[in-house]
Amino acid sequence: MLFNSWEFLCLLLVTLVLYYAPWSAGRHGKAWQVMVALIASVVFYGWEDPKLLGLLAVSCVGNSVATARIILYKVRGDETRVRHWVKLAVILNLLLLGVFKYAPFFAGMMPFLPAEWVKAIQETAPPIGISFYTFHGISMIVDVARGEVTRESDAMLSRGTRFAKGVRDIGFYLLFFPQLVAGPIVKAKQFWPQIAAKRWSDIPWIHVIRSLILGFFLKMVVADNLAEQTLGLTKPWLNVLGPLDLILLLYGYSMQIFADFAGYSLIAIGLAALFGYEFPINFNFPYLSTSITEFWRRWHMSLSAWLRDYLYIPLGGNRKGEMRTYLNLFLVMFLGGLWHGAEWKFALWGSLHGVFLGIERFCFRNQKKNDQARPAWRSVLGWIYTFHAVTILWLTFLMPDLNQIAYYFRELLVPGRFLGPTVFTTIVFGSAVVVYHALGWIRENRKETFARFRGSFSEAVIYGVLLFLILTNSGPPQGFIYFQF
Fold first, then answer.
1. Active-site entry in 340, 353, 388, 437
2. Are the beta carbons of 325 and 361 closer than 8 angstroms?
3. Does residue 340 have an active-site annotation?
4. Residues paired with 199 in a beta bridge
5. Alpha carbons 150 and 192: distance in angstroms, whole number
């Protein structure tokens, strides 16, 4: 079910009414609200294809049982069994991800498989959101084993009623619908302390309204309208457009993919706040970055943190020498690329990001971390390099394969028609992302100016205009790009 659909609006209204029903303020308010949210999450995920609920149930039950057992053995001080359960749970999560997402990738490398089997496997689409709920499961398992959520796991320390309630809360963390399909990847230590009875009067309405209006604007007005134009980057339109069109449309796709990803995260943050839960910020004006290193501190921040905490640091991080650090950076980004999709184009995307990170680390290895005194021209050049490197690599998300990516660059050398209206429309909607980042620059560099704007009448007018544009200028509904991951 899409956030930008009438079905979701109906589900949201019904869920809110039941979630904050008068009896939710009673003794069993927390249990009632968790169950209402769980049922809504199941409906949300299984709306388009109920068969997917079976796999989701296997993941949820398996991770819940493993987490409960790890907590039990940690209380008993049996670290050997804790390690065994952690290994078992992580392996099962990765196996689930491997079978249902990466089988098509590996099937093509097995010449001994019958051709019809390979074709059938490769035509099977991966379940929606499997990467996200698998990563949630792994982070929960590891955090509990590390003792990072000890106090919050007290409800799961004993058998019987308390144990059952603990498993229920684990399931709620894994299935909560705002982040179920495309993040943000919320850690258990961030979410579990928040599980409690919520009151309607405690909803941070200004935060909710800002997040939802901005999120829906970025998705429905910017991303969905740009999606109509950036189809020109795929065949057969790719063959007739001229180089200028193709270049400007690539910029348009860079704006579209940001608006789509960031829009989803803002909607998820707003919805979570509507139900009394705080999610971490996921996109922090990434197109202001002056290096690829900085880009990954601003783009999909919850994924970056996950890769750092559960992959980069366990691999040794930067603690095992300079060459090992470069290797770790490359491996993390290579695997991060494959996380986005079981295709060579995503492996290329991750590999090149890893190479850029390694080059930057080598070039600036003697620069102090807190050194802010660098000339403006270097920041400008760094921004130009970063934005264009990131934008060009987004072709791997748009194009179906590496051959089509190569074909795009060949077409840049072939004269073709210039479609003025297409470019004009792309510039109009893409400019919204430029303005959004300009406001982000003001927030970071002109804090007093931004503080005066925040909460002012001018801000209210701007959000009113955004709401008007959502109602009158939304593009044809499109699925969220990150749903494919």
1. 340
2. yes
3. yes
4. none
5. 10
